[in-house]
Amino acid sequence: MYRKILVPYDISNPADRALAHAVRLAKATDESTQIVILHVIPDIPIYPVLEHAIKSKHEGPHTFNEHVQFVYESMKSYVIKILEDKKSEYRQTGVTIKTDVVQGKPVDKIIEYAKDADLIVMGSTGFSGISKLRALGSVSRGVLEKSECPVMIVH
Prior knowledge:
The protein is about 45% helix and about 20% strand.
C-alpha cells in the first residue's frame, strides 16, 4: 500500500512516537515499504547588527558567512549522528530506513521532499513548547495544509 513513508523528525518526543508508528505501519503493510527520516535545519535569520557583532569579535580570514556555515555544518553533524542512532534502533525490524538532513524552511522542505512519498507521518507538535497545550504545531499545521499526499499526525 505504501512504498515510501516520510517522517519529518525534529528530535522531539512526538517525532519519536511518529517514527515508531511509521515503522509499525511499514511492517504491517509491505516488506518493500521504505521510511525516510527527514530533519530540516531551519534557516537562521541574519540581521545586520548580528553580522557586525560577529565581524567585530573576530579578526583575520574568518568571514561572517564562514561562521554561519560552521554553525550549519556543526548542527548537521550533530543531527546526522542522532538520525543514525534512531535508524539503528529499528534495524532489527527489517524495515528499510533512510535518513536525510536539509536546510531551509521546515514546511517548504518537507512538502518538497514529500513529492514522491505516499504518506507523511509526523508528530503533532515539535520543539516549540506548545505541546503542553495539546495544540497542533505550526510545522504540522503547515504540512497538513500544503501536502498533496496523506498526512498522519501522531500525538
